[in-house]
Design goal:
single chain, 480 residues, Aldehyde Dehydrogenase, Chain A, domain 1, Aldehyde Dehydrogenase, Chain A, domain 2, 7-stranded mixed β-sheet, 6-stranded mixed β-sheet, 37% helix, 22% strand
Length: 480
């Protein structure tokens, strides 16, 4: 039976969720609406005591959940997915204010949570069996125990669910820490989950960087799953190493798109633009560098420019927006730095203006393409995480593959070409965790998502992603 809406959940007051109960604090902070610059609702700043209490509650809830058959776990996850759908309108109002995303993008993220639940409920935990003359070896998997999830601000709902859902499916308890930039929807997600799951099984304790460190240090937590920057990911790994916690780190990228000369220019150029500017470039696997064959460079770039000029940027209250603002002032200033550097170096702005003029108090930036900046430039070497992208021509396939791989990151990449077999061969030579042929970057739960090099450790989603929440448990049974 599907659960109905719960009348006591309100969407203008926000709490940490500890042991199934709402918990406030004398210390509060608030997010900023990136479309207006206005302060949003107060949220509590969690303390060490809040975290200790959450770990104690998780420790109490874990054994019964570990021993719950997986079909029962799936049943409760399915109920949660259905319940989230009933709160779409309420979540949408909060979500658009905290992220600035256009309504279509916001709805897609909420639906993505539901699809993530549905997909995971189709999975089984793998096992292996080896038979020999004198013994049988069973490889099984058991849950780690209590997991901690540190959530970023760019996809606060989906990236909460991408950690919560597999953790619960595999029999773990989990405590998430939402980003202080976007704390609201994640807290409500966990509050709604209390109507389905036992107390202490899924909890939320929000706060600042100090709380994140406490989460990584806590001896009662067996795993940290973190999505965020490379620099912070290294700190997470170092801190978690003190107690030998398992870690999953999904970090930054500098994704290359290689455009082969046989593409349908008019069809492909707009798709490449979407890949670069999706969510205003605030996507870890957004296209960050675009390499176009020299024989089509001018024509392809012209089509990119034309499509970019048609993109509407605005607040969620306006209709038909493709892009919203940059989510927070810190990131806004960082992205502006790439504009200032490109202007100072004299690079050509194919579309967009070097000087960002704020039309209001929101963090809006028009999507911008830099035409053929040199290798070694900041816009080529670093990840802006905003709506600005460079293009470069190429002539030699070996050289452009080497150029694409010449980075310390390796999260995603794209190859575009009419000859799919040739494009796929190029894709297999790119040093990235997820490579897309004839599509911009779209992570899919059916495949594990993780990075090579400094783009991460481990991965999420897919059957392999489940194993990141489990220990191998190998039973050797001798026949005599």
């Amino acid at each position: 039976m599907s659960p109905g809406k719960v009348s006591n959940i309100v969407f203008d007051k926000f709490y940490n969720i500890v042991d199934g109960k709402q918990r406030g604090s004398d210390n509060v902070h608030h997010g900023i609406n990136p479309s207006t610059g206005q302060e949003l609702w107060d949220v509590p700043i969690g303390s060490q005591q809040d975290l200790d209490d959450a770990v104690a509650a998780a420790k109490k809830a874990f054994p019964a959940w570990r021993d719950t058959p997986i079909e029962k776990r799936k049943e409760l996850l399915t109920q949660f997915g259905e319940l989230i759908g009933q709160y779409t309108d309420e979540l949408l109002a909060v979500f658009c204010k905290e992220t600035g995303k256009p309504k279509k993008s916001a709805v897609a993220e909420i639906q993505g949570v539901q699809y993530l639940v549905q997909y995971h409920c189709s999975l089984e935990i793998p096992t292996e069996k080896y038979e020999a003359e004198d013994k049988t070896i069973y490889t099984e998997y058991t849950p780690l125990g209590i997991c901690g999830g540190i959530i970023p601000w760019n996809f606060p709902l989906f990236l909460s669910a991408i950690k919560i859902v597999p953790a619960l499916l595999t029999g773990n308890a989990i405590i998430i820490k939402p980003s202080p930039f976007t704390p609201y929807s994640g807290l409500k997600l966990v509050e709604i989950m209390q109507e389905v799951f036992p107390s202490g099984l899924v909890q939320a304790v929000g706060g600042n960087n100090e709380l994140g460190q406490q989460l990584c240090e806590h001896p009662g937590i067996g795993k940290i799953t973190f999505t965020g920057s490379i620099a912070t990911g290294k700190k997470v790994m170092a801190t978690a190493s003190k107690t030998l916690k398992r870690v999953t780190l999904e970090l930054g990228g500098n994704d290359a798109s290689i455009i082969l000369p046989d593409v349908d220019i008019k069809r492909v150029a707009p798709e490449v633009v979407k890949g670069a500017f999706q969510n205003s470039g605030q996507v870890c696997i957004a296209t960050k560098r675009i390499y176009i064959h020299e024989s089509i460079y001018k024509e392809f770039l012209a089509e990119m420019v034309a499509f970019t000029k048609s993109i509407k940027v605005g607040s969620p209250d306006e209709e038909d927006n493709f892009l919203g603002p940059v989510q927070n002032s810190m990131q806004y200033e960082r992205v502006k730095g790439f504009f200032q550097d490109s202007k100072k170096q004299g690079y050509k702005f194919a579309v967009g203006e070097p000087d960002i003029v704020a039309a209001n108090k929101g963090y809006f930036i028009q999507p911008t393409i830099i035409d053929n900046p040199p290798n070694g430039s900041r816009i080529i070497e670093e990840e802006p995480f905003g709506p600005i992208v460079p293009t470069q021509p190429w002539s030699d396939l070996e050289e452009v593959i080497a150029r694409a791989n010449n980075t310390n990151t390796g999260l995603g990449a794209c190859v575009w070409g009419k000859d799919v077999e040739k494009a796929s061969k190029v894709a297999r030579r790119l040093e990235a965790g997820s490579v897309f042929v004839n599509s911009y970057e779209k992570a899919d739960p059916h495949g594990m998502f993780g990075g090579h090099k400094e783009s991460g450790i481990g991965g999420e989603m897919g059957t392999l992603g489940l194993l990141a929440y489990m220990n191998a448990h190998v039973i050797h049974v001798y026949k005599s």
